[in-house]
Amino acid sequence: MAHYLGEFEQLVLLALARLGDEAYGVTIRETLIERTRRKPSFGAIYSTLRRMEDKGLVHSFAGEPESVRGGRAKKHVVLTPRGRAALREAHGAIVKMAEGVQGL
Amino acid sequence: VKHPLNFLVRVGRSETDRMALLGDLEEEHRARLARGDARLSGCAWYTKEVLLAIVSGGRDLVSVGTTRFALRTVLADAKYAFRRWRHRPGFAAAANLTVGLGIAAATSIFSVVDAVLLKPLPWTNADALVIVHGVYPERRNSPATAPTWNRWYLSIPAYDALQAASSFEEVGAWRYDSVADVTVGDGGTEIVNALDVSSALLPMLGVRLALGRYFTAAEDGARSDSIILTDEIWRRLYGARRDIIGERITLGSAKFNEQSTWTVVGVIESGFRFDGFRPDVLRPLTISRVSESGSKRISHAPALRVAARLAPGVSFDTAASEAGALVSAAASDPGEHTARLVSIYDEQVGASKRSLWLLFGAAGILLLIACANVAGLLLAEARIRRHEFAVRAALGGSHAHVVRQLVIEYALLAMTGAMLGLAAAPVLTSAIVAAAPAGMPRIDAAAIDFRAATFALAAGCITLLIFGVMPMVAHARTPVTTLLADAGRDGLSSRLTGQRFIVVAQIALALTLLTGATLFGETMLELYRQPLGFDPHGVAAVTTTFTGSRWGDDARIRATWKAAGPNADVGSVMAPLYLETTMARTSAVLERVYALPGVLHAAATSAAPFVSNPSRLQIVLEGRPDTERLDALRQCVTDNYFATMGIRPLAGRLFDRGDTAERWIAVVSSGFERRFFPAGAIDRKFDYFYNPQRAMTYRIVGVVASVKRQDLTDDDRPAFYTNCRQGAENPDHFVVRTAGDPASMLPTLRRAINEVSPQIVVTSMSTLDSRIELSVVEERFRATLSAIFGAAALVLASVGLYGLVARRVADRRREFGVRVALGARPGDLRRLVLGDALVIVTLGLAIGLPSAFATAQVTRSLLFGVSATAPHVFATAVGLLAVVVMVATMLPVRRAGTADPVAALRGS
Known about the structure:
Low-confidence stretches of chain A: none
Oligomer: heterodimer
Structural class of chain A: alpha+beta
Strand content of chain B: 15-25%
Structural class of chain B: alpha+beta
Largest sheet of chain A: 2 strands, antiparallel
Largest interface: A-B, 21 and 28 residues
Distance between the termini of chain A: 26 Å
Mean pLDDT of chain A: 88
Strand order of the largest sheet of chain A: 1-2
Low-confidence stretches of chain B: none
Order of helices and strands of chain A: HHHEEH
Shape of chain B: globular
Number of strands of chain B: 21
Number of strands of chain A: 2
């Protein structure tokens, strides 16, 4: 296993995979709320992204400043091949573990 | 979203992350508001997110290896400190409370200083705003006009000239309508204050409107009926109706007995105050550049207040010299008057500056003394803990370790002190605000806000530095071997140099505060010692405005005109009518008031002391040339005035009912007699020129004691009284002497006066005692606060010295035992300890005296009746301090005398 991924890390990476080019703080959080019914704080999302960027799982770049954001730029985030591999591995493990388990 | 904690989001994050995170928060916040979330819940959500971001950032930090270790040890040290405090609750409480109280005092004064002096004024770019005052050198010649000679009004031509000045970007003017107006709203009559402003003024200041528009430039010249309401009156009289714009309202002017209708064009946001004045309505300043008679002569009478905004890049001095030159050139007699600039900041808060900074300084000194106490406590603690430190050193603990432990303990102390201070500060602040003089601008905005909290934290850090450094240095300089060697013994050689130094400093600082308190206290006493000339106890004063016709009803006026014939002079026909109407009204009120139970005396006057100013006129004494004009005050009174006020008659007679026939008699003050007729004033005469050609000649029939007029520092200005029946002044003020508490009579008086006629409106009422109190409120404010600070300093210094002496005695128990064994008597031991304490006190006083003297010089302009160099002031402060702190040492001194040689020798 390349990297052990925490549960929240997996969820964020899945959100990134789902969102593609559209991924940044607000959309990531929206996706998480929509699909998991959890309400993570922006602070938690940013801390997780920072950690995963340090591990080389995601890559981020700044967008243009926007007035609706009080003149601040977005931080766009995309999956790196490494991140995608880690996600695949973690997901595979879950699927394998769940295989044949009754009553889920 | 400007959240005060935004800046903390950077904890554990890069700047790009921080900006992106805040951007996300902003975007989401807006989306929430757009979805219809309430502002409050949006704000709560934002705050929660920001806090979570800070927390998660902090957690990231901790998860980094070394930092995590550091934080762990810090936490462990903090826990250890808390445990120690639990075991020594007395020490912990004393240290924490002392720091807390010091910080509370400093923080609450800071919150007041901040609100009054530091917070930016509510105007747009207030730094560039100036007030242009008229400077009239010849006004200096008369005591009545001297106080305002360089802050007087400007004339219309001067205002016109200033508008052309290149130094100014914008120029605005205003004028108060000094006479209360009456509006007829839904709730009957109500007095409102009007401010007339030029169209440029409100936009220049950046006054914000809740509704409607500003006045337009077109409304400046023409007679306009536009009116802007302030938030307060809009709410009170019009129920905050948003459709008020365009509505017509009626104002009547009490002065001119006329009514006018106005169209509401705007409503100003709440809290509007300008030039120390809180108007209810604003009207366009219509300046008549053509005189009533239609001639082109423009009035040069000073009538306007002018403010201006400096053009970009123009310096204050350049603008001041240009304004001075323009105004001087515009005067009817060029050079007769000129102008000067005062920044709007100095104009609005300048007067409170010195007082507040002084108090802030006093609070700072108090905080220092508190720090010194805590430093003393900590030094003592450190000595007690030598054993602990020695053991730690022996077990391989480093110096650095112990110092870190101390730093953390002290930091905790500073922080809990700051928290305690913050908790207590709001109470102190509201007490200060309640005690502050009414005229202190913006003080009601004083509150413990984010800035004050920052200040408290900063003060906590500074106190930490001050009280922590000495014990720490003391520890770091002690070699481990000494620690170990010392730990077993009580230290015969304990000199306590550090503690001695601290107590000396405390006594020196306390002397400074006590000197200030003595000076302000003595000022207060001196003020109360001033003879008033009247007896204010039990007297109520009521000010009224008459809103009806001052000449009686129309039928009477017409009948009088008819009787006078077509060629009659307006003045001579109308004047008696005016007088008759006024006196009838006044008598009716007095009759009604006399009928009230509990009323001993009642009278009417044109100016009650401490309530309003009498007229200031120029008179010419009998036998002197007309050019020799002298200043005098005049007020009219009804028959019972002197009895009501308790003003002592000195010679001649007072007014009575028979005075109607003989015109122009006067009763003069003893000051008048002394100054103008030292040989006796009775039956002497003087002239008052009410216009250059016509004079009234007054004959003096009586002399009464001089009275204070405006405040207790008044010098004795010559004054004379006329009988209201002889006209010349409006007896709008009523004074009533009651058998019981006059304050409880006020509602009854208001009802009684309203019953006489609804057209007599009571504009203000109070007891004379309260008016006199009001006149000294600023002095009282200073005296009270400085007394509190002085007392606190006294207590802290006493505790400091007590602690030191007690420790010395405890340390030297064995030595004393030996001394007793060798034949010393208890008295010798007591003298030994007392002498030691005396040296410290003397040293403290000697060091404190020069700084107390220097501080006293700063207070000079705030003193009355006491000199800042008066030896007795310093003697009082020194004596009080010396006695109190020496009394504090009595207990340990007595204990020294009970040293037991057996116990001492057994101990060793």
